C-alpha cells in the first residue's frame, strides 16, 4: 500500500513513460538529440525533443526548412536513429535497434507517403502495393487479395495493372497511400504529401487523409504549408531543432 | 522474401534491359560456348577412340606384328622390322589351344583400298579384308541383312562376301544387294550379308568395306604373308579378367617365340587402353591449353558482369531506398542483386551451352562425333552461377549497405 502511494506521488513522469503501459500512446520521444559531426564542429539538428502521439491522432509537424523537421521525420519513420534519447513506437524501443530490426519496424509500424510518391516505375500499381507484404513474408494469394482491397479503398480498384506513368499525379499518390496502409501500420507518416500536386488534387488527397483519420488511422503529416497543417487536429512547430509550439486546434 | 519471388524479380530486372543484358553476357556466352565445344570434341574423340578405333568392344584386343612403341622413331621402326617376325597360324593355334582366359580368337588380314565392280559400275578405295568367321562374334558385328559367312565357307575358300552398307547402296541402288554379285580383281563373289550402317568418323566412311573369308582372301590375293600376314583379334572371357587375358596372350606368345626373360616382346598387343594412352599423349597438353583460353573468357565475363551490376546498383539507388523504407532488410537487398547477377550469368551459360550443342551438331555431321556429357553441362551451368554470385557479391553488398535516407534522396 505504501509503495503504491509512493509511486503515485513520487514519480509524476511515470505516465509519460507509458508507451507500453497506457496502451494508447503510439509514439513516445524522450529527450531526443540528433547531432551531425561536420569536421570538428557539431551540428545539432534536434535538441532535446520530447513529445507523444496518441493512437488516432492527426498531427502536423511544421517548420521552416533547416528547422530539423526532416530529421525528426526520418527518426519517427525509423529511417535513422537518434544520437541520444529514447524513442518508443507501439511498445518497441527503437532508439537502440540494429538496421535490420529498424527495417522490420518500418515494415510493420510505419506507412510512408512521400512528396514524389516513390513508386517503382517498372512495377504495376498492384505490385507496388504488394511490396510491404512481400517483405512481411506474406504468401502470394493472400498478398494479392490485400493489395487489391487496399487499392479499392482508395478508389483505384480498376487501375491495378497500370504502371505509375499511366496514372495521374493524384492517382499515383493514392497508390502510395494504399501501399502505406496495406500492412495496417500504427502510423501513416506523410512527407509533404501534396507538394507535387496541383491545388485541386491536393484538396482530394487531404480529404482522403481526413477520411482515413475518421476510420481510426493515426496520421502524421510533415509539411511547410500552413493550409495543409490546418487540416490536422494538432500542430507541432519545430524551430532550430526544438519544439517551439505544440497546440491542439480541434 | 522467398526464392521464387526473388528469382522473378531478377528475371524482370534482366528483361527490362534486354540489349544490355545480352551484351553483358557476350563474354560469358563465348567463354562457355568455346569451352563446351572443345570439351565436346575431346569427349567425342574419347568415345570415338574407345568405340570405333578400338572398334572391338571393351573386352577385346589385337595381337600384331608391331607395337605402338615400335613406331617411336625411324631407329625403332628399323629395329622392329628386323626383330619382329610376321604372325603365323601356328601361333594362332598355339594361343587357341593354351589360353584359358581368352573366350574367342580369330585372324584377320589386309584391309587395303581396292577397286570393286558390279558389271560396269565400280567403287574406288573400298577396304577389302579377309577374316575368320569367329571375328563377327568378337567384334559383335551388327547384321542388317543376310548372315556372316560360316566355317565351311572359309575352309572351302568359297567366293562369298560380307559388305558394308555403302557398298550395298552404291552398287545396288535398287536395294537388291543381298544375293547379288560383285567383282574384285576379276573374280566374282556373292554377297551373303550386309552390315548395319555405322556412319562416318573423322570424315571416314565406316560402311565402305568388303570382308571375305580369310582363306578365300589368301587364295585370291596371293597368300597370307607380307602385307597380308595375319593379325589376331581376341576377346576375354569377361571384363574382369581382361587384363589377365592380355597378359596370358603375351606370355603364350613369348613362350611360343622362345623369348628369354628380360628380352623385349617381338610382337605388339593392342588394347583399348594402349590406344587411349596414345591419345592422351597426343591430345592431353593441347587440350589443356585450349581449355585455358575459354577460362580466361569466363574471367573477363565475370568482370563485365560485376561492372554492369555496379552500374545497376547506382541506377537503382532510389529503388533500393524505396524498398528499404518499406521494410526490406539488408539481406533482402543483397539477395535481390545476387540473384540478379547469378541469374544473368546462368542465362549466359545456358545460351553458351545451346550454342555449343548446335556447333556440336555441325561438327558431328562433318568431322567427328561430339559428346557433351550431362555432368559437364550441369557443372558448366553451376560454374556460371557461381561466377555470377562472385561477380555480384561486391555490388550487392554495396546496395545492401546503402543508407535509406541517402538512397531515397537519389535521383
For this entry, give a set of tags.
heterodimer, A: 250 residues, alpha/beta, Rossmann fold, globular, B: 411 residues, alpha+beta, 2 domains, 6-stranded mixed β-barrel, two-stranded antiparallel ribbon, 14 helices, 18% strand
Model description:
The complex is a heterodimer of chains A (250) and B (411). Mean pLDDT of chain A is 88; it is low at 1-23. In chain A, helix 6 (140-153) crosses helix 7 (169-181). Chain A has one domain (56-84, 99-248): P-loop containing nucleotide triphosphate hydrolases (Rossmann fold, 3-Layer(aba) Sandwich), CATH 3.40.50.300. Chain A has helices at 2-10, 19-22, 69-76, 99-109, 125-135, 140-153, 169-181, 199-214, 226-229, and strands at 25-38, 41-54, 58-62, 84-89, 92-93, 110-113, 187-191, 218-223, 234-239, 242-248. Chain A is 36% helix and 28% strand. In chain A, strands 6-7-8-3-9-10 form a six-stranded mixed beta sheet, sandwiched between helices. Helices cover 56% and strands 18% of the residues of chain B. Chain B has a six-stranded mixed β-barrel, surrounded by four helices. Chain B has a two-stranded antiparallel sheet with strand order 8-9. In chain B, a hairpin with a 2-residue loop joins strand 8 and strand 9. The mean pLDDT of chain B is 87. Classes of the chains: A alpha/beta (250), B alpha+beta (411). The A-B interface holds A 74, 77, 79-80, 99-100, 103-104, 106-108, 112, 114, 118-120, 122, 131-132, 134-137, 140, 179, 183 and B 1-2, 5, 12, 16, 318-319, 321-332, 404-405, 408.
Amino acid at each position: 500500500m505504501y509503495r503504491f502511494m509512493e509511486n503515485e506521488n513520487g514519480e509524476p513522469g511515470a505516465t509519460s513513460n507509458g508507451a507500453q503501459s497506457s496502451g494508447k500512446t503510439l509514439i513516445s520521444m524522450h529527450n531526443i538529440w540528433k547531432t551531425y559531426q561536420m569536421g570538428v564542429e557539431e551540428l545539432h539538428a534536434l535538441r532535446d525533443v520530447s513529445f507523444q502521439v496518441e493512437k488516432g491522432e492527426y498531427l502536423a509537424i511544421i517548420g521552416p526548412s533547416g528547422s530539423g523537421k526532416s530529421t525528426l521525420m526520418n527518426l519517427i519513420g525509423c529511417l535513422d536513429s537518434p544520437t541520444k534519447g529514447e524513442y518508443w513506437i507501439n511498445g518497441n524501443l527503437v532508439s537502440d535497434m540494429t538496421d535490420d530490426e529498424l527495417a522490420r519496424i518500418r515494415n510493420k509500424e510505419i506507412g510512408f507517403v512521400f512528396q514524389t510518391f516513390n513508386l517503382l516505375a517498372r512495377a504495376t500499381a498492384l505490385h507496388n502495393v504488394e511490396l510491404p507484404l512481400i517483405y512481411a513474408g506474406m504468401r502470394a494469394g493472400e498478398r494479392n487479395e490485400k493489395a487489391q482491397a487496399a487499392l479499392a479503398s482508395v478508389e483505384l480498384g480498376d487501375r491495378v495493372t497500370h504502371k505509375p506513368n499511366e496514372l495521374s499525379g493524384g492517382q499515383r499518390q493514392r497508390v502510395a497511400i494504399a501501399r502505406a496502409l496495406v500492412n495496417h501500420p500504427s502510423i501513416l507518416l506523410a512527407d509533404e504529401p501534396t507538394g507535387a500536386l496541383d491545388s485541386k488534387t491536393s484538396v482530394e488527397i487531404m480529404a482522403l487523409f481526413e477520411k482515413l483519420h475518421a476510420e481510426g488511422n493515426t496520421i502524421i503529416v510533415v509539411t511547410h504549408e500552413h493550409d495543409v497543417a490546418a487540416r490536422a487536429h494538432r500542430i507541432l512547430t519545430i524551430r532550430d531543432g526544438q519544439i517551439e509550439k505544440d497546440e491542439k486546434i480541434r | 522474401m522467398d526464392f521464387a519471388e526473388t528469382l522473378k524479380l531478377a528475371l524482370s530486372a534482366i528483361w527490362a534491359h534486354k540489349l544490355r543484358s545480352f551484351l553483358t553476357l557476350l563474354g560469358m556466352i563465348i567463354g562457355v560456348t568455346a569451352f563446351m565445344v572443345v570439351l565436346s570434341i575431346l569427349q567425342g574423340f574419347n568415345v570415338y577412340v574407345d568405340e570405333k578405333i578400338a572398334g572391338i568392344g571393351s573386352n577385346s584386343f589385337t595381337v600384331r606384328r608391331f607395337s605402338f612403341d615400335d613406331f617411336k622413331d625411324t631407329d625403332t621402326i628399323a629395329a622392329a622390322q628386323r626383330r619382329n617376325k610376321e604372325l603365323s597360324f601356328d601361333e594362332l593355334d598355339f594361343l587357341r589351344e593354351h589360353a584359358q582366359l581368352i573366350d574367342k580368337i580369330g585372324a584377320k588380314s589386309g584391309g587395303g583400298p581396292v577397286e570393286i565392280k558390279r558389271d560396269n559400275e565400280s567403287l574406288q578405295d573400298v577396304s577389302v579384308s579377309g577374316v575368320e568367321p569367329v571375328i563377327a562374334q568378337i567384334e559383335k558385328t551388327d547384321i542388317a541383312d543376310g548372315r556372316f559367312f560360316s566355317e565351311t565357307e572359309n575352309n572351302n575358300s568359297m567366293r562369298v562376301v560380307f559388305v558394308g552398307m555403302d557398298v550395298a547402296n552404291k552398287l545396288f541402288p535398287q536395294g537388291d544387294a543381298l544375293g547379288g554379285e560383285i567383282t574384285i580383281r576379276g573374280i566374282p563373289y556373292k554377297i551373303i550379308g550386309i552390315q548395319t550402317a555405322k556412319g562416318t568418323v573423322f570424315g571416314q566412311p565406316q560402311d565402305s568395306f568388303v570382308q571375305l573369308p580369310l582363306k578365300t582372301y589368301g587364295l585370291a590375293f596371293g597368300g597370307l604373308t607380307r602385307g597380308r600376314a595375319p593379325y589376331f583379334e581376341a576377346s576375354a572371357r569377361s571384363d574382369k579378367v581382361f587384363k589377365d587375358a592380355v597378359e596370358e596372350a603375351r606370355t603364350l606368345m613369348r613362350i611360343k617365340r622362345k623369348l628369354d626373360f628380360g628380352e623385349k616382346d617381338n610382337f605388339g598387343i593392342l588394347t583399348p587402353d594402349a590406344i587411349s594412352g596414345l591419345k592422351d599423349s597426343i591430345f592431353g597438353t593441347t587440350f589443356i591449353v585450349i581449355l585455358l583460353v575459354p577460362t580466361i573468357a569466363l574471367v573477363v565475363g565475370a568482370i563485365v558482369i560485376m561492372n554492369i551490376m555496379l552500374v545497376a546498383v547506382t541506377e537503382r539507388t532510389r529503388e533500393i531506398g524505396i524498398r528499404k523504407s518499406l521494410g526490406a532488410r539488408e539481406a533482402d537487398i543483397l539477395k535481390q542483386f545476387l540473384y540478379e547477377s547469378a541469374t544473368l550469368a546462368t542465362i549466359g551459360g545456358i545460351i553458351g551451352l545451346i550454342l555449343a550443342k548446335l556447333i556440336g551438331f555441325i561438327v558431328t555431321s562433318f568431322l567427328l562425333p561430339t559428346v557433351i556429357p550431362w555432368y559437364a553441362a550441369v557443372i558448366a551451368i553451376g560454374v556460371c552461377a557461381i561466377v555470377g554470385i562472385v561477380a555480384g557479391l561486391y555490388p550487392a553488398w554495396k546496395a545492401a549497405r546503402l543508407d535509406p535516407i541517402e538512397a531515397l534522396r537519389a535521383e
